[in-house]
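From the pipeline queue, job 12 of 40. The input is one protein chain; the requested action is below.

Action: predict structure.
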Amino acid sequence: MKRLLASLLTLSSLTLAAGCGDDDDTKKPDDQTPVEQPEVADVKENITQDTTWKAGGTYTLKKYIFVESGTLTIEAGATIKGDEGSALVITRNAKINAVGTAEKPIVFTSSKPVGQREGGDWGGVVLLGKAKLNVTGGETTIEGFFSTSGNDLVKYGGQDDAHNCGTLKYARIEFAGFELAPNNELNGLSVGGCGSATNIDYVQVHQGLDDGIEMFGGTAPLKHIVITQADDDGLDYDLGYSGKVQFLIVQQSAARGDRGIEASSNKSTPTQAPISLPEIWNATFIGGGASTAANPTQEAMVFNTGAGVKLRNAIVAHWKNQAVDIDGTASAALFNETGDARLSIKNTFFWDIAGSNTGIPFAPNPVVSNGTTTDPDVTKLDESQVILSTANNVRMQDPQLEAATNLTAPNFAPRSGSVSLNADAALTPPSGFDTSARFIGAIGTTDWTKGWTAYPEK
């Protein structure tokens, strides 16, 4: 009996003790888990090993930062700021793994305060790889650097068309690019010799001082790309670029910007293989309109020095001057090929070109010798007559976009009932592309630009 009573008393005291503990939910300060603060760091030295820039952190580039080897991982929600004279360069012996999300994109921007930022504040992002170029020796040095002699860090090119420069996904690049000298510029995103295993997807380049994106050779694909208000061209490609591009938006403003696409191949030897020949599906090219007073010319697409394209299911609207300029005999020869021509445009709508909704202008290529025009059009190719084609379903057609020319809150999606959404007006993309995209332009019924893009003025 005494043992039983003692056991009951012991059990009672344990129960009371437990009850008292439950009434006090406040942890002692020593028991609290510390909250990890976002990392803030200046980046002053090149990267030579696997490195991670953390989610929510802010990293400021103080100069040209070369990732010489290893993989630079940038987590979702990180912000990378660039000082004047800085850029992030992923060399061909390294990789980038920058994967944001629609809710937490990775942002590359100017280090200047909001309201003071503008194009050219810093040098942008450069990816270099080992894919083929159409240059003598198969490799060269990337534009945008004063001294490149003997500097292997700025070389790109090789023989590996499947080379992987890494992943850049759900990322914005703002207020970047600058011109060191004519034909020596950094862009918002410069991609030199990257191969087909490279993943560039859901990337916006906004208010770059030179081109939005320039592809220097290689085969890297581009997907879900938004290029807004570049100072020069939206998408520039040359040196034998032949990647797959799908879901591309280029928007120029009335105050700045040159071309939606400038396509070149090899200036000295236009037939040098590989020629520039990307395949582009589901694109929207928006110009600044007929009132582009600040720019003497603004052209949607120019193909020169032997560059071609296979453009399908596109919208080209609101351009002040030319819609298509096939410039020079080498590119004209690609357009004139019978069968599957290497410069061809199909299932594409043009609208509001040089103030007209009934046709596109002729783009002459005159030959001038000693100030005298010896040939008014060396190509003998009248774009106003040969581009629009019933057989290819290329026509003047209002795409009925929501607010494509708005610079601060654009909406590139077609309105309900737009013929752009009619599957019968579009071709089915081939294998290697999103074959479900049976619509004209970059956006169908789902607006993939929402949530991760931004259009700051400064």
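Job complete. Helices lie at 2-22, 329-335, 383-386.
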